[in-house]
Predict the 3D structure of the following.
Amino acid sequence: MKRNLKSYLLTAGLMIMITGICCSKKKAEAAPENGCIINGVNTCTQASPRIVISLNDEGQTIHSFGASDSWTTKFIGKWADASKKNKIADYLFSLENDNEGNPKGIGLSMWRFNIGAGSFEQGDESGIPNEYRREECFLKPDGTYDWSKQAGQQWFLSAAKARGVNKFLGFPISPPVQFTLNNKAYGLANNHLNLKGDKQDAFADFLVSVAKHFASSSTPFSYISPFNEPQWNWGEKPSQEGTGATNAEIAAFIRLLGPKIKAAGLATTIALGEANQWNSLDGNNSDGRGDQINQFFNPNSANYVGSVPSIEHLISAHSYFTTCPNNDLITYRTNAVNKKNAVDPSLQMWQSEFGILGDICGQLNGYPKNTGIDYGLYVAKVIHHDLTIANVTSWQWWLAVDTYNYSDGLVYINDPAGGYDLTAMKTDGIVSDSKQLWCLGNYSRFIRPGMVRVNASLSDVNDPAAAAGSFMVSAYKDAGKKQFAVVLINMTGNSKTYQFDTTNFKPGQDMISYTTSASKSLQKKVNNTMDIVLEGKSVTTITGSYQ
């Protein structure tokens, strides 16, 4: 009995060995070149998916990352507590690190200055209920200028300059009230420019005078952007300064303004656009306010302004209401790029205003205020697609400093009691940050002006549109310094490891990662391995040198 069992076991073992050899041979014959995937099953230990960088496959050259001073800085810039003002300025502009090597701020490289129209001086007569949404005007009713106006905003100009910012953009949202048809800073509730016919030259002279004044200061305006979201019918429910304008009205004014800027000997140029949405650049023109790439930069267009003196060769749009679902996020930007390439491939595109507004596909909302990582990730996702699909050279935010119970700020102010008393916040408040701030900082702090975007991909992501909901990567190089920055987004709740593919990209040994997550804000970590661990729900920037 025992002998028979032993013989059986020996025979069975031999058969198993033979079967194993046969099966192994069959597997080897059936396996693809990598030898792992057989009948849909991974039979090998799977290596980490790869981050593939192609340094020679170049995209756009980055100009800047910016934000605007609207509308709160007119009060906050005059706070008596300098330490609080400086904390805000550090958050926005600083390139310094704390004692642990973590960034103090997000290092913005451009600052937008709202050139007010005078609704603030009008008070309640302005028709704009909230004084936080009214602005002072340098031009007085008697035609003289008072350069002490907008003092709070001018403090932030100086604070930005002191922290290394050297690009400044001045933008009016309305002509001065004394030049408008309704004597208000809000529009006519239609598509037309709120500007008297005999005040066209006066408005142009006003903008030139403002540019000349700041040209003699330490914060000269590199750009003037004369119109902002002209596609909206400002004035239907007056809540802020603003005016509509047709393409023909914009073109006529630009033809006045450009020669005046040149005649004044200014280095300032005109940054045209500020379209309300991406599809206003390439889409419907039934009311004379769409198809702006073709309208302004096609030499065959009646509204062509590409040859006007002092105009910058760019057009800008805002990313509002074009971000979800994912197919729209891709399509709107692809359409704008295709139109630009058809009309003028050399034309730069900027994304010049964004914040979290309204309902975002039922997943996020402007109200009430939310400064958590889900909102930061959404911002990072929009930035990623504006850079990699729309190929923007500059990306800019709207409300840098927010006093509202709303999600569209970077730095937030509460009243001294922790609430939203706007009157109290005119003189003091509690300063806090947000994940919107730091996720923007994963880009602005490390992708510096002059860096070039290069092609980057993830080996396990085949469809860029699918990547919009999971993992994203973009990469940038400074060819002169042989330095790089790679930004990776993990929208999922699980961590994941990627490995640098060193076939065509050989990082040095000085790699540092900066992670923003629910618990971290650009937290520094020294990386001495090619493996990059992405925490769940995080944005990670890898910096270093390359060979």
